[in-house]
Amino acid sequence: MHEKLLDETGWRILEELQEDARLSYKELGRRVNLSTPAVIERVRRMEEAGVLEGYRGVVNPQKVGYSFRVILAVATVYNNPDHVILRTLEEIPEVIRSWSVTGSNDFFMEVLVPSMEFLEDLLVKLSAHGRITTSIVLPRMGGSGRIPRPRNRLEEAEAVQSTLETGTTKG
């Protein structure tokens, strides 16, 4: 369905918008070699298809009062925990992301923490739902946060072979 949108030009548009979502259509068109009306139409179609889900400002949590970030792993005591945990999470705006996962835990949560006291209170509240494992997030070591183009099978095989031969990753 999205193949037409995700041709070479479509991926270049996505890469540019992930780098700077505030680009004007004129500048975006210049960078991807499309006219302004053509780039407006491509972006509109990507939005309608759900390929582009939105545009956000990136806020530095420490600059707005959060001391640190934690990842909580939750192994619940419930057979079907999603709805129970969801109600609890809706009451905690500091939980900025959560995922239902497979494995020994049922959920992972990313939480912005203003103080150690806040974290202690949160852990007490969540411990009623099961076992909680807490990891404090250290400074980011890598990764851009951008969605890359999927590799085709040949590129994937070449990257694996390169890694095996040199011990470093490619692309």
From TrEMBL:
GO BP field: response to amino acid
Swiss-Prot/TrEMBL keywords: DNA-binding, Transcription, Transcription regulation
Biased composition (Polar residues): 160-171
InterPro entries registered for this protein in UniProt: ArsR-like_HTH (IPR011991), AsnC-type_HTH_dom (IPR000485), Dimeric_a/b-barrel (IPR011008), Tscrpt_reg_AsnC-like (IPR019888), Tscrpt_reg_AsnC/Lrp_C (IPR019887), Tscrpt_reg_HTH_AsnC-type_CS (IPR019885), WH-like_DNA-bd_sf (IPR036388), WH_DNA-bd_sf (IPR036390)
One of the record's GO molecular function terms: sequence-specific DNA binding
SMART domains: HTH_ASNC
Name this polypeptide is given: Transcriptional regulator, AsnC family
Taxonomy of the source species: Bacteria, Thermotogati, Synergistota, Synergistia, Synergistales
